[in-house]
């Protein structure tokens, strides 16, 4: 049996390395024409050096080094002198790289970062711009009934603070209340609307109109801390202006 450095090594997934075990055995000519044929010390040493370089991530694996890795994965109780000699040289030359390699086998990715398998996915881009753009946040109409003190301004921002109902807007609104067309505003949803306007004068004018009363419809996006308006119109229009 193979002497253990840490835990018993896992069997190498051959489909990952060469596609199938048959191809691996056919490729043993790289280290010998028959698995049991003894190799020269120079051949084994060179093979061990190449295997160590791949396991440590210094070079990328090719068809020959993949065959060496298959030999290392053999059960040494099968009396394959080539595999035994290669294993001894590898353990002597790069014990840490070999242990790391076997640990990576447990995650089905035996190769060190930067070799055969890239560790992080590549984002597809075109001219520096992601091909997949995030979908815009959905916006919905919110209906309100104005009253004195409901609206205020902060520079160019019109702020509407409202009371929630327990029913949709179609069932009626009291002054100072807002509701969605299809349902009430939920307890965990914001109770004020931010309306960005082009100037402070426009914001003050909007404050005066909403505080004077009447029905207003805001198309808003839920920005978590507030409802951000993208459009506003007086009355009960069904289409965004």
Question: How would you portray this structure in words?
Answer:
- With 241 residues, the chain is of the alpha+beta class.
- It folds into two domains: 14-105, no CATH class; 140-234, no CATH class.
- Helices cover 29% and strands 19% of the residues.
- The protein has seven helices and ten strands.
- It has helices spanning 14-17, 21-26, 41-55, 63-72, 81-93, 95-105, 200-211; strands spanning 125-126, 129-130, 140-145, 151-154, 157-161, 163-164, 177-180, 192-196, 215-222, 227-234.
- Helix 3 (41-55) packs across helix 5.
- Residues 1-39, 114-119 and 121-127 have low confidence and may be disordered.
Would you kindly provide a brief summary of this structure?
The chain is α+β, with helices and mostly antiparallel strands and 241 residues long. Helices cover 29% and strands 19% of the residues. The protein folds into two domains: 14-105, no CATH class; 140-234, no CATH class.
Write the layout of secondary structure elements.
Elements lengths: L13 H4 L3 H6 L14 H15 L7 H10 L8 H13 L1 H11 L19 E2 L2 E2 L9 E6 L5 E4 L2 E5 L1 E2 L12 E4 L11 E5 L3 H12 L3 E8 L4 E8 L7
Parallel strand pairs: 6-7, 8-10
Antiparallel strand pairs: 1-2, 3-7, 3-9, 4-5, 5-8, 9-10
Number of strands: 10
User: Distance between the terminal alpha carbons, to the nearest Å?
Assistant: 80 Å
Fraction of helical residues: 25-40%
Q: Poorly predicted ranges (pLDDT <50, ≥5 residues)?
A: 1-39, 114-119, 121-127
Q: Radius of gyration, Cα only, in angstroms? A: 36 Å
| Overall morphology | rod-shaped
Q: Which band does the percent of strand residues land in?
A: 15-25%
Largest sheet: 8 strands, mixed
- How many individual domains? 2
Structural class call reads alpha+beta
Kindly report the average pLDDT value: 76
Strand order in the sheet with the most strands: 4-5-8-10-9-3-7-6
Continuous helix count: 7
Helix and strand succession?
HHHHHHEEEEEEEEHEE
């Amino acid at each position: 049996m193979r002497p253990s450095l840490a835990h018993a090594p896992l069997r190498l997934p051959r489909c990952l390395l060469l596609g199938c075990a048959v191809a691996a055995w056919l490729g043993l000519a790289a280290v010998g024409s028959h698995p049991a044929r003894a190799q020269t010390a120079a051949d084994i040493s060179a093979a061990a050096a190449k295997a160590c370089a791949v396991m440590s991530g210094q070079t990328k694996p090719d068809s020959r080094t993949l065959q060496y890795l298959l030999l290392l994965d053999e059960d040494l109780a099968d009396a394959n002198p080539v595999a035994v000699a290669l294993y001894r040289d590898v353990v002597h030359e790069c014990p840490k790289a070999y242990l790391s390699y076997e640990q990576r086998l447990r995650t089905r990715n035996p190769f060190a970062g930067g070799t055969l398998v890239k560790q992080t996915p590549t984002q597809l881009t075109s001219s520096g711009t992601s091909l997949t753009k995030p979908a815009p946040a959905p916006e919905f109409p919110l209906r309100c009934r104005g009253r004195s003190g409901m609206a205020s301004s902060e520079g160019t921002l019109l702020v509407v603070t409202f009371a929630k109902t327990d029913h949709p807007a179609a069932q009626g609104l009291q002054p100072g209340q807002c509701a969605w067309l299809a349902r009430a505003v939920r307890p965990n949803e914001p109770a004020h609307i931010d309306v960005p306007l082009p100037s402070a004068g426009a914001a003050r004018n909007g404050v005066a109109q909403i505080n004077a009363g009447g029905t207003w419809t805001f198309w808003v996006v839920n920005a978590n801390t507030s409802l951000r308006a993208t459009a506003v119109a007086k009355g009960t229009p069904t289409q965004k202006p």
